[in-house]
Amino acid sequence: MLCLSKKTEYALVALAHLAEGGRIASAREIAHEHGLPQALLMNILKGLQGHGLLASTRGVKGGYRLARDLAAVSLYDFVAMVECAAQAGGEDCGCMEHLAVGPELARVAASHGPVQALQLRLVRFLNEVRVADLVMPGRRIDVPLERLMVKR
Amino acid sequence: MLCLSKKTEYALVALAHLAEGGRIASAREIAHEHGLPQALLMNILKGLQGHGLLASTRGVKGGYRLARDLAAVSLYDFVAMVECAAQAGGEDCGCMEHLAVGPELARVAASHGPVQALQLRLVRFLNEVRVADLVMPGRRIDVPLERLMVKR
DNA sequence: TGATATGGTACTGCGACGGTACTATATTAG
DNA sequence: CTAATATAGTACCGTCGCAGTACCATATCA
């Protein structure tokens, strides 16, 4: 139902890097500094740019910088952006459509299934946590050696 | 980092079924009643039995029944049991070892990485929610037609 | 003894994830 | 103008875990 992958992990590290000082940084710089696979990170950042979370500048002194206030971005939105980076086209790539939000939430809660109950809690959690709560200037950035995973 | 799969979903439905009246029920009965794949559900229930969440009785009038108070089981424990059902042997199959709990939590929080911050929130969430909060007698049980999923 | 049920184990198809490669385009420096 | 750097876009691939199946052993009830 919920899958937070390495992409999310990498994206989070990159965001922390960018948030620290608000400066512009290239994918290569970020990747090398934190030991992330460069090519993969580039793809992830491309996706985040397509979703409007990052702004990009091409060319020699180019790179990525934050385009939105991280305090205004919920974990829900973030996961949606990262995990659905593939389809950069539309706003809503639909990969989180099953997790009802907003007006749908009431409808879901009313159906009262155990799965729906979990869904409800999950969405609430994801909406409450802001990316800024996780990624804050001054935090120590490091990538865990082992995967922080429940299973896989 | 976190992966709630169909197994979790099915297990939740089964638990709801068993909680409703506290009666014994066979895997076949549960599977047929809620349209779950029978063979798969059997495997899942076997796993939960191995972890002590369910008690089983063989034979004609046999089946599964709850063995623990669901109000005492956190979502964290539950996910660990379901997702790690494969290794029924030991208590701790280790698949959630990366998500620090208890005394480890402080250590994790101190390291202050963005990933650790997320980890912290996640573990808190998983520990706060009790299975009984999701699975309650009287709830309507139904399996969603579409997968309630964030991605996969 | 036969039917029903779990226990255990082994197997499999498929798709997503993690990661790579290549080409095009834009920007800066010399 | 050219070389270097950087993103944009797209296509590609290997591996691995999930979802699901199958089979045999064992226990219980009628």
Describe the structure.
- Two copies of one chain form a homodimer.
- In chain A, strand 1 (54-57) and strand 2 (63-66) form a beta hairpin.
- Chain A contains seven helices and two strands, in the order αααββαααα.
- In chain A, helix 2 crosses helix 3 and helix 5 (103-111) packs antiparallel against helix 6 (114-128).
- Helices cover 47% and strands 5% of the residues of chain A.
- The first copy, chain A, has a two-stranded antiparallel sheet.
- Chain A has helices spanning 6-19, 27-34, 38-50, 75-83, 103-111, 114-128, 131-134, and strands at residues 54-57, 63-66.
- The first copy, chain A, has 152 residues and is mainly α.
- The two termini of chain A are 14 Å apart.
- Chains A and B meet through helix 1, helix 4 and helix 6 of A and helix 1, helix 4 and helix 6 of B.
Would you kindly provide a brief summary of this structure?
Chain A is mostly helical and 152 residues long. Chain A is built from seven helices and two strands; from the N terminus they run αααββαααα. A two-stranded antiparallel ribbon of chain A has the order 1-2.
